[in-house]
Write a structure and sequence with these properties.
The chain is α/β, with parallel strands linked by helices. About 45% of the residues lie in helices and about 20% in strands. The protein folds into 2 domains: about 25-65 and about 80-270, Endonuclease Chain A (Endonuclease, Chain A), CATH 3.30.870; about 275-440, Endonuclease Chain A (Endonuclease, Chain A, 2-Layer Sandwich).
């Protein structure tokens, strides 16, 4: 209101772009959404039934008692199906991820579905476009959905070339009308059996670092039933963007091989969600720690509940570590983060700046038992505004892998201390405090 009074014209524009609540409110719209989700859940019925017994065993005999509570939480606030027959591969660099992705694209038989926040036109995507055009001409269904704002550098000439070959493209939401609510998800699903998710967008910077020495990010490949869950998420988002109905079992293969058991759930949140699912997930993870929790997030502008949970965990004597990027691609959230650090460090939270290059990973691991990889940053935009997606894995081997990756990154990081904060001059402190004023929309 203060902005509206002091600067009326600018205030009105800011309200239209950032302040207006575009979240779904009407009961009628919610009912429509539920009907669509029920249709998609029916397509997943085979997956649910096959994994039902495994789920019961996991709940009864879990070595980590909080598993049962987390499974229940995500099943209620995110309608997240627990699948157990999965195999995964974790990537810490874009080179390996895109190498594997392109190999899987070349081997696609029936469908290729992409949903990405940023899709650029550059060296990397040219090679991917060539593969997609070839597959579309072979009869494979190819669909690309990109965020209207994040796809700003997706050239019109590339779009025309793809469409001419039979690739279906569509932006998600209006570029300016819903500036606050962006589709920040990054997923690829191939033949309903192989999928990719994580922090990496579609751009050459994930290969060569772009304007930075190095681009650190975390992504994962899934082979198995969780890929079908991701398929339902894509089909739902595609339907609401295009109105194309894809509620067919042909996108959900039934002849999948059963791999070793890796239980996981896919948590989603967004303006169309009844609950702030990923915010609740992160809060619950922090509160369920027994020994340690290691968090990587490029940006750190959280709400009060997350701050309180982190401080409480540290004050309990647990090993609480937070790693953020020390190389800023976005100055305002980078500055704002410093205003949260002082109280956290006083409570005993260990905070690190990753300085090898830009750190863009979004991961949490705790107690060698549970881990998550996804698209959600530790900030209010990811918690309350964007469409986000995270995989939560109840697997010791995966947790240890992500723990070791975090510890390896410490070699390229500088720990921050209260003395660093206290050395800031008055102008830096004012700058950081002003940046924090914008934290609800960063």
């Amino acid at each position: 209101m203060l902005v509206l009074i002091l600067v009326p014209i600018i205030g009105v524009l800011l309200y239209l772009f950032f302040g207006k609540n575009w979240r779904i409110k009407s009961k009628r719209e919610f009912r429509k959404r539920i009907l669509i989700l029920n249709k998609l859940n029916n397509l997943l019925r085979n997956v649910s039934e096959e994994d039902e017994e495994e789920t019961k065993i996991l709940k009864r005999h879990s070595s980590h008692p909080q598993n049962y509570e987390l499974i229940n939480l995500l099943s209620k606030n995110s309608r997240a199906v627990l699948t157990t027959s999965n195999r995964i591969k974790i990537y810490q660099s874009g080179f390996e991820k895109f190498k594997d992705l392109m190999k899987d694209l070349r081997n696609a038989k029936s469908s290729i579905h992409f949903e990405y926040f940023i899709w650029r036109s550059d060296i990397l995507t040219k090679e991917i476009h060539d593969i997609l055009i070839k597959k579309a001409k072979e009869g494979v269904e190819v669909r690309i959905m990109y965020d209207a704002l994040g796809g700003f550098l997706f050239k019109r000439t590339d779009k025309k070339r793809l469409k001419k070959a039979g690739v279906k493209l569509h932006s998600f939401s209006n570029k300016f009308l819903t500036l606050n609510y962006r589709n920040h998800r990054k997923i690829a699903i191939i033949d309903g059996n192989i999928s990719y998710l994580g922090g990496m967008n579609m751009g050459q910077e994930y290969i060569d670092g772009g304007g930075y020495k190095f681009w650190k990010d975390t992504h994962m490949k899934i082979i198995g039933r969780a890929s079908q869950v991701l398929q339902t998420i894509f089909i739902n988002d595609w339907y609401h963007a295009t109105k194309e109905k894809m509620f067919s079992r042909k996108y959900f293969p039934t002849n999948q091989k059963t791999f070793h058991k890796l239980p996981m759930q896919i948590a989603i949140s967004g303006p169309d969600s009844k609950w702030e699912s990923i915010n609740q997930l992160y809060f619950s993870l922090i509160n369920s720690v027994d020994k340690y929790i290691y968090i990587r997030s490029p940006y750190f502008v959280p709400d009060r509940s997350i701050i309180m949970a982190l401080k409480t965990a540290a004050l309990r004597g647990l090993d609480v570590r937070l790693m953020v990027t020390g190389v800023a691609d976005k100055k305002i959230p980078y500055w704002a983060a410093f205003t949260f650090f002082r109280d956290l460090m006083r409570a005993g939270v260990k905070i690190y700046h990753y300085n090898r290059g830009l750190m863009h990973s979004k991961t949490i691991v705790l107690d060698d038992q549970i881990s998550t990889v996804g698209t959600a940053n530790m900030d209010s935009r990811s918690f309350f505004l964007n469409y986000e997606l995270n995989a939560l894995m109840y697997d010791k081997k995966t947790a240890i892998k992500l723990r070791d990756d975090f510890l390896e990154d410490l070699k390229y990081s500088k720990r921050l201390y209260l003395s660093d904060y206290n050395s800031f001059n008055i102008f830096v402190r004012i700058r950081n405090s002003l940046a924090r004023l914008f934290s609800p929309i960063l």
